[in-house]
Amino acid sequence: MRRIGKKKLVMAVLVLVLLITTIVCFIDVVWGIILFALYALCLCALTVGLLLNKCVKKTNWYKNLFRHTEQFVSNAGYRDNLIRNYEIVNLGSNPALFAFFYENINGQNWSTGSQGLDMDFEILKYFHSYLKTGGTVLIPIMPFTSISPYLKNKPAYWDKSYYAKFAKILDLGYIDRIPELNRSKYFSRFPLLYKPTSLLYLLHDIAPDTRYLISEQPMMAMELEQDANRWIEGWLKEFDMKSLDIPLTEEWKKYYDESVTLLRSMISYCLERNYQPVLICPPMTDYLSKKFPQQYRQAYVLDFVRESNTANIPFLDYTNYAEFQDPALYFNSFFLNLRGRKLFTRRLLKDLKIQ
Amino acid sequence: MEYLQLSNGISIPTQMMGTSICDMKGKKAELFALLERALIYAAQTDTVGFDTARDYANEPLLGKIFSKMYRNKIMRRENVFITTKVGNGQQYLRNMKHEIDLSLKALKTDYIDLWLLHWPLPDYWLDNWSQMQDIYKSGKVRAIGIANCRERHIEMLKQAHLPMPHVIQIEYHPFRTVPSFVALCRKEKIQLEAYSANCLMLPFVKGNPTLNELAAKYHKTVTQIIMCWHVQQGVIPIFRSFNPAHISENVDIHKFTLTDEDMQRIFALDRDYKFHPESLNCPGY
Ligand SMILES: NC(=O)c1ccc[n+]([C@@H]2O[C@H](COP(=O)([O-])OP(=O)(O)OC[C@H]3O[C@@H](n4cnc5c(N)ncnc54)[C@H](OP(=O)(O)O)[C@@H]3O)[C@@H](O)[C@H]2O)c1
């Protein structure tokens, strides 16, 4: 229906334009010709724009943005896809994307890569009916989850291309009601329009993101140390912190409380629908974990979990778990590689008594 | 056609035919013609219950087909049972009075037999449900209900001191039998309707050994076994077929009865399989 409406509108505009031009032609031929030339120019520009847009969609830059959204089957696709009743799914950002790999179990990784807790909730709300009654929802808690709402002050971290992947997998009618997503609604279709600089990728593209396929540790000990430092420096910069030795001040408490409220809502949401939510800290190498002072972990992770978890759901903390300290299971200091991912998920399913 | 009685005393056919063509591929005009032929055929073979919804975008078409059928004396308005639903897009506007008038106009009728909220849309449905009570009292609809309800929604109605629906429509078939929900509906005197009553005859349904064995035993088809299983337990199946032979088959189920044991064998097929993942149609569901 909507498509017919749009077609009719385009036709009406074209007819109107033609009509005006013809009238102008009758009044003054020169102006009529100028108008026609202008229209022809516009049409050419539009065609070239659409062609370039098509080329941009073929770049690795574009493909990388949506690389981890393929697993989601939305309203348009479920009739051709009969898989239902997942026993387990996980939410979470990159560390979760690289932590879970479901074999011999009907499970799905619902991490799209970079993914805040608020988007975790949107994904859960939209896709949860794929889960079986009683199915497990893993909610990963990372070192900065508790204060992540702070990043709202830093729009550069959450630009349109971040929201575009969520806008692509969620329902159009639904995202109308989420302002951030609504602004990125058509990004996946017209990337050039939203990010004109993407043209540069036609000249010099980036490499395809193949991290998901890596099954070995490419870094040596010193590189791992440097990589861990880079992560910490990146976070300090992101959160405008001087060091990780900071107490939970009033300033941080504001963001922290926001996360507590959100996490509590997510937990109740799962429980009300008879799913089993589980809070989980995936493992990391000790190159990285040792950089977090104990007081930081206590205040920003463990106390956060305690405060949010009023429903007393399981909390599994694998951060320093001995079995996953071997750097060979990772592809940097933070993310598990394919082998590590498989081993960790097997251990987790055993701990959850699902397998 | 046989009838059941709703808690408010009105009669409702024991089987319904769905009219949705949203998911069908093909040219609109051809689909419309197919639907028209199927509806006329169904009416001539004594199928009198039809299920539609605003979101199926076919209310005006049905209005035209129905009026033509009344004019040609294929059926009379008072013998037809029309169900329609108010969709989420309309629920956001919170004006049920306006919505029922639109549906009445499109369906070219003075009343709807059963009017349903298509979804218990979070943050909206309770308010809209309470508006629907007034419309029910006005006589524009003879019964009201909610589709895609769960236990928690019934609980919410109780907490809000709002009346129970006369009818609840959910996805229900041998592969999804939600026993505790069915028990709750019975307790609350809510009539259950089963949409996708044949589970769309998906390959695993068509090829199911138990259903095929029973079909052979009773000299019936798999769909007839499924339809009979619904009707025998007092659930109203909504099937959809635009194939005359299938329509006849689906309603020709009154001359045999499944034994209790065979009914239980079908119940045992349950694996809580939802073809329509609800949250995709109603985010936050
Ligand atoms: N409230 C809601 O949210 C909701 C959601 C979904 C559906 N519904 C309602 O429920 C209605 C029915 O749903 P549905 O389409 O899923 O029904 P269904 O009867 O379970 O499935 C329809 C499919 O089954 C086939 N079929 C039907 N009878 C058959 C027979 N005797 N032999 C072989 N195949 C047969 C049809 O093919 P042929 O055409 O070839 O016979 C069609 O492909 C819809 O039209 C709609 O009114 C409501």
β-strand number of chain B: 10
| Overall domain count of chain A | 1
The count of helical stretches of chain B stands at 13
> What is the overall shape of chain B?
globular
Question: Helical element count of chain A?
Answer: 15
Low-confidence stretches of chain B at least 5 residues in length (pLDDT < 50)? none
Strand percentage of chain B: 15-25%
Describe the strand arrangement of the main beta sheet of chain B, using strand numbers.
Answer: 3-4-5-6-7-8-9-10
Residues in helix, % of chain A? 40-55%
Q: Helical proportion of chain B?
A: 40-55%
Distance between the first and last residues' Cα of chain A: 48 Å
Topology of helices and strands:
The complex is a heterodimer of chains A (355) and B (285).
Chain A: H1 2-27, H2 29-56, H3 60-65, E1 86-90, H4 94-97, E2 107-109, H5 117-127, E3 131-140, H6 160-169, H7 172-175, H8 179-183, H9 191-194, H10 200-203, H11 221-238, H12 250-272, E4 276-281, H13 286-289, H14 294-308, E5 315-317, H15 338-351
Parallel strand pairs in A: 1-2, 1-3, 3-4, 4-5
Helix pairs in contact in A: 1-2, 5-12, 12-14
Chain B: E1 3-5, E2 11-13, E3 16-18, H1 28-44, E4 49-51, H2 59-71, E5 81-86, H3 88-91, H4 96-106, E6 112-117, H5 125-138, E7 141-147, H6 151-159, E8 167-171, H7 179-187, E9 191-195, H8 203-206, H9 209-218, H10 222-232, E10 236-239, H11 244-251, H12 260-267, H13 278-281
Parallel strand pairs in B: 3-4, 3-10, 4-5, 5-6, 6-7, 7-8, 8-9, 9-10
Antiparallel strand pairs in B: 1-2
Helix pairs in contact in B: 1-2, 9-10
